[in-house]
Amino acid sequence: MLKYLNYSKNYQEDQLLAISGLQHIAFCERQWALIHIEQQWDENLRTAEGRVLHGRVHDPEYKTYKPGAVVVRGMTLQSLSLGLYGVADVVEFVEQQGGVGISLPNRTGLYLPRPVEYKRGKSKQGDYDRIQLCAQAMCLEEMLNCHIEEADLYYGETRRRETVKLDTELRDEVIELSQHMHKLHEEGITPKPDMKLSVCKSCSMINICMPRIRLKTSVQGYWNEVLKEL
């Protein structure tokens, strides 16, 4: 039996954590803790552009017509097995020609859901975005009693879709990160910063995570710069 079918813990609704946190914790545990435990947030140009993009995608007045599919925007998701909740940017219910699928109200035929997550930038080397997308699909599978093999990431910078295979390895990452996220949330401890400036400098949380004084090689160096600004 596939490993991803072996998770059996059931969470209560008040224990659910945000699906978006999977992307954060896969990138940086401290970033996740600052946002989801300490409830801190700071914004830069990238996060602001992403917020605007998601606002447009979730707009119920924005209509999309796709032949052979029913398009749903801003669909609420949850999984009591994974302990996750969130909102899918877009779910395309694609009509099936074979005998596998689910029924939709006021529709004939069978359909399979295909989540589409919108991101402002471009495809990344890490699996951060793919993990979040896979978690959305796993929530849909639990809610609708179906199996989803593929989903899509749409990147605003390239204006292209990336098809993601929801294989066992990716599903296992979702399960392991979900469990780890719940463990850290129960402990309520924010990890110490791991100062990798080549990565951290693009993070919107850098000034909260690592205030400027932390980046100085000495106290004297810090005061020299402060005095220059007076």
TrEMBL record:
Gene3D superfamilies: 3.90.320.10. Its cofactor is iron-sulfur cluster; Mg(2+); Mn(2+); [4Fe-4S] cluster. GO terms for molecular function: exonuclease activity; iron-sulfur cluster binding; metal ion binding. GO terms for biological process: defense response to virus. Mg(2+) or Mn(2+) required for ssDNA cleavage activity. Keywords: Antiviral defense, Exonuclease, Hydrolase, Iron, Iron-sulfur, Manganese, Metal-binding, Nuclease. Its EC number is 3.1.12.1. Pfam families: Cas_Cas4. InterPro entries: Cas4_exonuclease, CRISPR-assoc_prot_Cas4, Dna2/Cas4_DUF83, PDDEXK-like_dom_sf. The keyword Cell membrane does not apply. The keyword Protein transport does not apply. Residues 115-210 form the DUF83 domain. Belongs to the CRISPR-associated exonuclease Cas4 family. CRISPR (clustered regularly interspaced short palindromic repeat) is an adaptive immune system that provides protection against mobile genetic elements (viruses, transposable elements and conjugative plasmids). CRISPR clusters contain sequences complementary to antecedent mobile elements and target invading nucleic acids. CRISPR clusters are transcribed and processed into CRISPR RNA (crRNA). This is CRISPR-associated exonuclease Cas4.
